[in-house]
């Protein structure tokens, strides 16, 4: 491991990793350009590099893209990726309050904490932690998705029923296409383009970006800018101090992110959602969540960034990618004749560990790059709405189209956006809709696979036995109960 560390801090490693970080800053900032897409586009440019430097460059892009997708989520309430959705819940209200610099600093520092923690887990706990991950199968992933759905109570606003209805709408949209169970068309209206389902990124851009643009257009006469820009001395240091003074909150978010990151298929979006929910649940003062609490930003960013390095653990130990970008990196290794898994761990241990050190160092570099770029990035909100609105719409259209090079995805994005804009006006929050759409593809296929397994051994044994199942069920019940009690107490106070 010591040898791997010196490899990671060599000038060539640091140079290419830093280039990856800078490219990741661009990729994450543009809505629709995901870490997966950026990593895939970068792979051909790494072929001329030594394996270690090439993989370090991909890792740098991956890590920075996980942070920088928080920038549009905070500044203009347009999360370009699912992982940044929870960040915008508190990040954008902070911007509206004139605390845009604080929001970006909190996101950046939280990202650094999460990345470093996830990288340490990668370096020290790969083999022990993978033993726990192996206990997760379709039933466990189903209950994990159900547990994540309990955040609806936190996002619903004043009406839990509207929150549940919004989540149901999101899940129904995710069900469009060919069924996982019977291979029949669902909700396709005999439109061939819908058989492949709705693009996740296109739908999320529709849920968050399009309504935001339409609101900007409606407010042109009332507001000239998204929010007032305030550049105050000492904001960076004071925000970092505030984050440091919440160690239990930070550790809880990092542990949640790293653990979920290890589970193949779960990924950063569900890590961010679960972490946000747990931060809200354990907070003594819940009143500011969703209204501009920096803890909401850090809970999401620490978790989704901790999940990124942790997603590499099943790749290097079992050969199973824990996330889509991890799958791209696996492909890059295979193109070089290296097979991810126990064999790689045994034969090229120095490469495996040097990559872990590169991810850790990338997390630190991301922090300094983010701090340097923050004053420039936050000035986006000073662009007049009459200019900013068409810019966001243009980027949204490009992002929706680029995912599958399909103009039909643009039409779906616009249709979903107009629909969400209309239902927002009658009290629906876009958060549960986006949450339902993210969790639908996790819950449904795992439910179908678990039901197939139950035909042989019975439903009770598959769904309601085993320590992992029982823990997740208990957590789901506790989560629902906590939300119900909180809503009951707040109602009594109002009365």
Q: Biggest sheet, strands in spatial order?
A: 1-2
Question: Count of helical segments?
Answer: 25
Indicate the percent of residues in helices.
Answer: over 70%
Mean pLDDT: 81
Q: How many structural domains in the coordinates?
A: 1
User: Approximately what portion of the residues adopt beta-strand conformation?
Assistant: under 5%
Layout: helices, strands, pairs:
Blueprint: H1 2-8, H2 11-29, H3 35-42, H4 51-68, H5 70-75, H6 85-96, H7 100-124, H8 126-133, H9 138-149, H10 152-155, H11 160-174, E1 177-178, E2 185-186, H12 200-218, H13 235-244, H14 247-262, H15 267-282, H16 294-310, H17 313-318, H18 324-335, H19 342-347, H20 349-377, H21 385-404, H22 407-424, H23 430-457, H24 459-463, H25 467-494
Antiparallel strand pairs: 1-2
Brief summary of the model shown:
This protein is mainly α and 495 residues long. It is built from 25 helices and two strands.
């Amino acid at each position: 491991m010591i040898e791997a560390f010196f490899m990671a801090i060599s000038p060539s490693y640091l140079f290419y990793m830093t280039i990856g970080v800078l490219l990741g800053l661009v990729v994450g900032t543009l809505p629709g350009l995901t870490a997966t897409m950026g990593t895939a586009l970068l792979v051909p440019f790494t072929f001329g590099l030594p394996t270690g430097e090439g993989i370090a460059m991909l890792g740098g892009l991956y890590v920075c893209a996980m942070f920088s997708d928080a920038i549009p989520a905070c500044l203009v309430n347009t999360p370009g990726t699912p992982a940044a959705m929870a960040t915008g819940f508190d990040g954008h209200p902070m911007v509206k309050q004139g605390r845009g610099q604080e929001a970006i600093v909190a996101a950046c520092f939280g990202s650094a904490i999460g990345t470093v923690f996830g990288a340490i887990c990668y370096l020290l706990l790969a083999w022990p932690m993978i033993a726990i991950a192996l206990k997760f199968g379709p039933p466990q992933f189903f209950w994990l998705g159900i547990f994540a759905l309990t955040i609806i109570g936190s996002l619903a606003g004043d009406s839990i029923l509207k929150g549940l209805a919004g989540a149901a709408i999101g899940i129904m949209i995710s069900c469009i296409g060919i069924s996982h169970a019977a291979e029949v068309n669902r909700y396709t209206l005999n439109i061939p383009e819908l058989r492949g389902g709705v693009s996740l990124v296109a739908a999320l851009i529709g849920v968050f970006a399009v309504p935001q643009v339409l609101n900007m257009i409606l407010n042109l006469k009332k507001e000239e800018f998204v929010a007032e820009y305030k550049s105050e001395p000492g904001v960076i240091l004071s925000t970092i101090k505030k984050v440091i003074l919440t160690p239990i909150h930070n550790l809880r978010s990092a542990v949640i992110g790293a653990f979920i990151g290890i589970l193949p298929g779960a990924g950063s979006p569900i890590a961010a959602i679960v972490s946000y929910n747990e931060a809200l649940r354990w907070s003594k003062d819940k009143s500011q969540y969703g209204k501009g609490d920096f803890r909401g930003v850090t809970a999401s960013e620490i978790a989704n960034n901790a999940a990124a390095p942790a997603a590499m653990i099943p790749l290097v130990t079992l050969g199973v990618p824990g996330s889509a970008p991890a799958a791209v990196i696996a492909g890059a290794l295979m193109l070089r004749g290296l097979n991810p898994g126990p064999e790689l761990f045994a034969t090229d241990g120095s490469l495996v560990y040097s990559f872990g050190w590169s991810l850790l160092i990338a997390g630190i570099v991301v922090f300094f790059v983010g701090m340097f770029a923050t004053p420039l990035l936050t000035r986006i909100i000073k662009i007049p709405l009459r200019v900013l609105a068409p810019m966001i719409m243009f980027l949204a259209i490009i992002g929706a189209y680029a995912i599958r090079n399909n103009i039909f995805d643009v039409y779906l994005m616009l249709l979903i956006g107009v629909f969400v804009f209309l239902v927002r006006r009658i009290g629906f929050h876009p958060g549960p809709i986006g949450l339902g759409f993210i969790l639908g593809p996790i819950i449904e296929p795992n439910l179908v696979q678990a039901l197939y397994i139950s035909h042989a051994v019975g439903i009770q044994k598959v769904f309601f036995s085993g320590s992992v199942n029982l823990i997740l069920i208990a957590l789901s019940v506790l989560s629902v109960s906590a939300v119900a009690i909180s809503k009951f107490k707040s109602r009594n106070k109002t009365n």
